[in-house]
Design goal:
The complex is a heterodimer of chains A (147) and B (306). Chain A is mainly beta. Helix content of chain A is 9%, strand content 35%. In chain A, the strands form two sheets. Chain A has a five-stranded antiparallel sheet, with helices on one face. A three-stranded antiparallel sheet of chain A has the order 6-7-8, with no helix packed on it. In chain A, strand 7 (119-124) and strand 8 (129-132) form a beta hairpin. The longest helix of chain A is centred in the first third of the chain and has 7 residues, at 21-27. Chain A is elongated and about 50 Å long. In chain B, helix 1 (15-30) crosses helix 5 and helix 5 (133-147) packs across helix 6 (165-174). Classes of the chains: A mainly beta (147), B alpha/beta (306). Chains A and B meet through loops of A and helix 4 of B.
Chain lengths: 147, 306
């Protein structure tokens, strides 16, 4: 069994679907953080069989985790302060997502305009539907790839 | 200083703001001469990245009738876009020349990108299959002027309801008013998209979907015709079987109310027989006139000229 030490302040992202931790690492911009990050892949899980876990040592106000719920809303976010879990944060779907997914509508201006950010807005919270800010095309895993 | 406003989508304006816009258009209709110098010294840029004669001429006429001047291009090959310039850069340049811009672009969302970088008001004059807000404003003003109000009527929308952006935009815009019942008349291949019917269900707005126009003619206060194109059908048999359902002629008009109005975004091909043109219920050319009034009112509103 692999042992990774406790963190003093930061986040433990648990119950990440196995294999998705690197995607989350990129979307949260963790490669730009000058702090300790542990990526645990394929950890044993009673509920999930296998899961990924991310441990991030950072100021708890410095990270915007909204995008997590878009990627996988089953992730458990444990907020750590002074080495203890002080909060289990519930994830809220972000109203807007920038630079996470790409619109694949060939008629969308984002397909040709230079350096235009890819922005999607939450069109239906209940059904978790996102639409492209420019052309209103519905986000669909099959037609739009994650960036 | 007044906040810079654009017109990207008819829903950008509240119902109250649209009422003010339509009231102004009504004033212009009554006394156009008194508006002849409202835009003296102002310039409208018409940036049309794809050809559209009627819309461009309507915008240019609107500005000329207000006393302003126009400049622009009528297709992308005559613009710097042919050299690869971005929409963002083009609008920054246009902002240095003109006071307001009407933009048509084949790419959906292009006018919105322009609006985010512009220091002058931008009007979406049509972006691909996405939005054509001034057509919707035209349709709303026409209905309001002919019927006296926007509400308490049954409107039939007929033809290609799947791909027609004017139809989707009009349904969305009308869904904000009370007492409207929709009848969608189309072959099953060209039915209105699910997200529209879901929206109507959510808002408890009554609608029905039928195939034959004759069956519902007597119920309609407005009939909004669109073109059914042969290439939209999956097989020729279906096209041949159904095509006559959607050609409006005297025989079908005999079943309509005496005060029903026919609307059409134009251009028409053969879906409305020319024998109908002299029927007092044919309002599609009046609609073009209302399009001019509403564009004049929109230019004045966005330039904040009283």
């Amino acid at each position: 069994m692999l042992n990774i030490g406790k963190i003093e302040e930061g986040f433990v992202l648990d119950h990440i679907q196995a294999g998705k931790s690197m995607q989350i690492y990129r979307h949260l911009g963790l490669d730009k953080l000058d702090s300790t990050v542990a990526i645990i892949k394929n950890a044993k899980s009673q509920a999930m069989g296998k899961k990924d876990i991310l441990k991030i040592e950072c100021d708890i106000d410095s990270l915007d985790l909204d995008v997590l719920s878009f990627i996988d809303h089953n992730i458990t976010v444990n907020v750590i302060k002074d080495g203890e879990i002080i909060e289990k944060r519930s994830l809220v779907l972000p109203k807007e997502i920038t630079g996470v997914i790409r619109c694949h509508n060939p008629r969308c201006i984002s397909s040709i305009e230079q350096e235009l950010p890819q922005i999607f807005y939450l069109a239906d919270e209940e059904k978790e539907i996102y639409r492209c800010k420019y052309c209103d095309e519905k986000y669909s895993e099959s037609t739009i790839d994650k960036l | 200083m007044n906040k810079l406003r654009h017109m990207m989508n008819p829903l950008d304006f509240s119902v109250e703001e649209l009422e003010e816009l339509f009231d102004l258009a009504g004033e212009i209709e009554k006394d156009m001469d008194s508006y002849a110098h409202k835009c003296d010294g102002k310039i409208l840029a018409t940036c049309f990245y794809e050809p559209s004669t009627r819309t461009r001429l309507s915008f240019e006429t609107a500005m000329l009738r207000l006393g302003g001047k126009t400049l622009g291009f009528a297709d992308a090959s005559n613009s710097s876009a042919a050299k690869g310039e971005s929409v963002a850069d083009t609008i920054r340049v246009i902002s240095c020349f003109a006071d307001i811009c009407a933009m048509r672009h084949p790419k959906e969302g292009a006018p919105m990108v322009a609006a985010t970088k512009s220091s002058i008001p931008v009007i979406n004059a049509g972006d691909g299959g996405h939005q054509h807000p001034t057509q919707t404003l035209t349709d709303l003003l026409t209905i309001r002027s002919l019927y006296g109000k926007l509400g308490d009527f049954t409107i039939g929308l007929c033809g290609d309801l799947k791909f027609g952006r004017t139809v989707h935009s009009l349904i969305n815009a009308l869904s904000r008013y009370e007492g409207i019942r929709f009848i969608f008349i189309s072959p099953k291949e060209l039915r209105v998209p699910d997200y529209i019917t879901e929206m109507l269900t959510q808002k408890n707005i009554p609608y029905e979907e039928v195939i034959k126009l004759e069956d519902v003619m007597p119920q309609l206060d407005f009939l909004y015709m669109t073109r059914v194109q042969k290439e939209r059908f999956f097989n020729e048999e279906d096209y041949i079987r159904l095509k006559d359902f959607y050609i409006l002629n005297k025989e079908k008009m005999a079943k309509a109310k005496v005060n029903m109005y026919i609307l059409h975004p134009l251009p028409r091909v053969n879906e409305i027989s020319v024998e109908i043109d002299d029927d007092p219920r044919a309002a599609y050319f009046k609609q073009v006139q209302y399009g001019l009034y509403v564009r004049m009112a929109l230019i004045l509103t966005l330039l904040n000229i009283k």
